[in-house]
Fold this sequence. Notes:
It is built from eleven helices and 19 strands. It is of the alpha/beta class. Helix 3 (107-115) runs parallel beside helix 4 and helix 4 packs across helix 5.
Amino acid sequence: MQKVKISLTLVRRVTHLPIARHSNRYTTRCASIHSEHGLVPILDAVAHTPAVVVLYDSLLENIASHQQHIAGDLGIAIRPHVKSHKSLEIARLQLDAGAEGITCSKATEGITFLENRICRSLTFAYPMLSEVHSEKIFALAKETASELWFTVDSMNVLRRLHRHAQAHKYPAKILVKIDTGLGRCGVTNYTDALSLALEADRASHLRFHGIYSHAGHAYKETNINGLRRVARQEALNLAAIKQRLEHDRLYVPVVHTGSTPSALVSHREDVQGVTHCSAGNYVFLDYGGIKMGLTGTNVAATGYGYHAALGVVSTIVSKKEKHLFCDAGSKVLSSDQGAHGSTGPGGGFGKVLTAFGNRIDADVTVSALSEEHGWIARREGDGLDKVEIGDRIFIIPNHSCTTVNLATHLHVTQRVASDSVDSVAVAWPVSARGCVY
């Protein structure tokens, strides 16, 4: 059975914010916080548990690596999906690194970022049906001179958007959403794609701007080769639709994709013709990413420096012969076992790391959840015999996006100096928490 060596960095708490936004730090590797699994747990950074913790240096490196890989190496513009972090501070870091805009999901999520003047170009990648929210979005966009992109897969949504664009005399750009294999939203045939594109092209206050897809079925893959196959097929499907639209005299400036797993491992030949990417989960990654080989022990497989940058610090509150119990239950970790219902090998509700450096079983997970308790099944030789009531553990959740939405704040930790064991922590609000309508 594979073993993993885990070390612990002790930290102290401070009340001020020493973390500054310095662009020259985006390319700085802070190797001292990286272990075999891509992070070192920082268990004493927070006063209370459970707490959702972000490793700042790993966060910065993920942002920098993504910018270099997607924009620099592949020549694809980045419009990161903010549903993964729902944080104004992290969106600013992404924009400072070179993102050309942001992507959001539900209306109120985008409204939060518009109201806070985070950027001037937003993609709404969810069917916009609410009249009240559409009204507010167009009013805010006009007030802030912000560019609006909307994905559509029905005439119903398209015509609603046009009514609001006309009423405000403010244009919007339309991306026709294509289903390339997930089976969720998106048109599934060329006739529907052409009808929507022509309707948008004829509308007085809309502009057909291109096509959009989300290859979420990539999350069901378990290795790098499978992820690359998904990326290649998505690009081929979109290229074929673009070619037919242009043959029908429609200009298609944007070919937009947005799945973290397939984006992170793509080579240039996998994404021919793709112009934009809205992946979001790359800022944190999670246990799902580790199981797919995107980070952790298999980080070398991608060739880029992505790390698990988010976890939950939790305290052991009870100990029995067959289980340990921690204070992070479904209200903290969520009961999500993976994006789009994927689980990957191993199951469970998050990877457990402890402070006991010697060796712990690489397969230790939160095996079951109650609302306020995480169940950690014990097995002979798993290394958990050293863990006592009151000890803290670090849990890498299955799916970081759902964990973030359950938190009011992200406790961001950073080392003070490379030759010091001390670190600092500051709480960043999850500004768009609960913005699900």
